[in-house]
Write a structure and sequence with these properties.
Blueprint (H helix, E strand, L loop, with lengths): L8 H14 L4 H14 L1 H6 L1 H9 L7 H10 L8 H13 L7 H14 L9 H14 L3 H18 L7 H11 L4 H15 L7 H8 L16 H7 L8 H18 L3 H4 L2 H6 L2 H15 L4 H15 L6 H15 L1
Helix pairs in contact: 1-2, 2-5, 5-7, 6-7, 6-8, 7-9, 8-9, 9-11, 14-17, 17-19
Amino acid sequence: VGESISGFAAELIELAIITWMEDPNLRGCTIKLFRAMAVEVPLAVKLRLHEILPMLLDSLQGDNTKEILDLIQQCTPVLTDHLGILVSEFSFIFEFPEQRGGNRVRGLALEALLTLLRTLPLGEQASPICVTLRRVLAAEPSLPVRQLIMDLVCVIIQQIGSDFEIFLPGFQTELRSSNIDHPLFETLTQNLEHAKLSPSKQPHTTQARRERGDPSEGARALPVRTIDERALDAAFEYPHRGHAEEWLTWKQLLILELLRNAPSHSLHCCVELVQVHIEVADRLFCPAVMSCWTQLSGTLQSKFVTAAEAILGSKVPPNEIVRSLLELAEFMER
């Protein structure tokens, strides 16, 4: 394969896809062909990547796993538009390795994603992969795998910076409970705390802003918000009667309390908005729960989950309440 095949690239890729699907014995050769084409005719590969990538990911459980992951890494420059399916499939492998070739495949997938994220921007995929890694870290007994997970978390921190703060308490809790020592994670989180609490590192920044009339001059760092668990504990107490108005009032009050306690300042600023525009509250329910969730104690998390399960298992609540909880479950899974 060289530049001379560019005029036949589409036909050659089509042949490679058909061969992959029809003859598993030739997949080793087909991987070599894809790798050569990814170098010589990357545009042609990119145009069919929406077909090639799912096909490769579905095969991450056999003898060719390492070669497939190497191929995916070679396609890094054209993977940006397909990061969603990549993160989704890797997340499944991380959580359910027994269904996709066992711990060997999971270890290879972790190493591959670690390499990919050194150059690929996560964007909106940062949240779902962080949630998955937290769950896997909590359930994983193997120290080498835990260390690898934390290496991946560190790469994510380096990418998203202060946006990682919402996930930070959860990971810190897991590290403490498991006695895991990860110096790079400690250094990065200390830098986040320092950046949040300290003024600008440039001594003349304020003076420079004043001289150029910057409207942000005089701004101060927003205070760190703390959760009022007693207020949220009371808000989780749901009505046990079947009056729809009571349920809807309870939901509105719960959303207000979540927004009041949300560590996210953007959400906290919406408290007055939802009191005036009630319809906005529904849209903020899932983000408000997510914002508070990682800072809730284990007891309060368990109480919320128990209450949600009881509500979903009851015939008393109106459909709107049930729908909101189902949407919340889906949102938290993502």
